[in-house]
Design brief:
The protein is α/β, with parallel strands linked by helices. The protein has nine helices and 14 strands.
Length: 309
């Protein structure tokens, strides 16, 4: 990848930039923020760290939207993070106009760029970005499930004592309290997780995964999660930049998959150089489908609320 731009030089954008620059996922990395001096300073810091790691990625920052020019991929992390006691949906009225403004800049300066939305509420804002872009769902999608899956793998490792390297997990649905951790698809070393844990332990992991972001927010008080989201972004960027054809949970515009159309939901997708090249539709049992439908109904309500603003 030649050029990647991150809009939003907050903690999440900075955490993602550090990995992207160090691993040389692009030749040119730009941090853009309304606080231009902050973006410049963070970019310089990230660049110096990357150089020391042996990377030739050039990193710079600022506030001018024209810096988006010729971007291959734009990652949107800008917006107001939620505070303790808030849901992701509580910040919609603030972050929606920010997203609208960013999409206007992208359409003007980088209309051919692929767009990865990270800002919350990510399902709703991904749908909004897609609707404003004029692009197909292959070029506009969101990050949530990679982070949620990482959290669940962490809790599984803690509960079982097994190496996280051997754990596979999967989370579908909206990025919030109605997300759908699919325990039937979780395993340790290819052995189903239910072989090791009781139903009560499994339910404990499900609930903690759903509250994973809130748990960190409540403990940190003055800030939300940033390091794990940064890693999740970098994984998706790596899949695109290096054309890896990776199956990753992604907030995608559904076109009939899982019985839904015209909403953005977290589902397993194939990410490659072309962007989102395929949505994978898994067979769900009755309970799993009911949980997915409940989550989808919440996203539909959230989109309706957004359209009413």
């Amino acid at each position: 990848m030649n050029k990647l731009s991150i809009v939003g030089a907050g903690m999440v954008g900075e955490a993602a930039a550090q990995i992207i620059a160090r691993e040389e996922f692009c030749r040119e990395l730009v941090l853009i923020d309304v606080q231009g001096e902050l973006a410049k300073g963070k970019a310089l810091d990230v660049w110096q760290a990357a150089v020391e790691s042996g990377s030739d990625t050039r990193v710079y920052g600022g506030s001018n939207a024209e810096m988006l020019q010729d971007s291959d991929l734009v990652v949107i992390t800008a917006g107001v993070p939620r505070k303790p006691g808030q849901s992701r949906q509580d910040v919609l009225s603030i972050n929606l106009p920010i997203l609208d403004s960013i999409m206007l800049d992208i359409n003007r300066h980088a209309p051919a760029a692929t767009v990865l939305v990270v800002s919350n509420p990510v399902d709703v804002l991904t749908y909004r970005a897609w609707s404003l872009s004029g692009l197909g769902r292959d070029r506009v999608f969101g990050q949530a499930g990679v982070l949620d899956t990482a959290r669940m793998k962490c809790f599984i490792a803690e509960e079982t004592g097994f190496s996280a390297r051997d754990i596979t997990a999967l989370v579908l649905g909206g990025h919030g309290d109605s997300m759908v951790p699919l325990m039937r698809y979780c395993a340790v070393g290819s052995v189903p997780l239910s072989h090791f844990l009781s139903s009560q332990q499994l339910e404990r992991i499900v609930e903690r995964t759903r509250q994973g972001g809130g748990e960190i927010l409540g403990l940190k008080k003055l800030g939300s999660a940033c390091d794990a989201p940064g890693v999740a972004i970098a994984q998706m960027v790596d899949a695109i930049a290096n054309g890896r054809n990776r199956i990753l949970p992604t907030v995608a515009i559904l076109e009939g998959e899982y019985g839904r159309t015209g909403i953005a939901m977290g589902v397993p997708c194939v990410l490659a150089a072309e962007g989102l090249v395929r949505v994978i539709e898994l067979p769900l049992d009755a309970q799993e489908q009911a949980m997915f439908d409940h989550s989808a109904d919440q996203v539909v309500r959230d989109i309706a609320e957004m359209n009413a603003l």
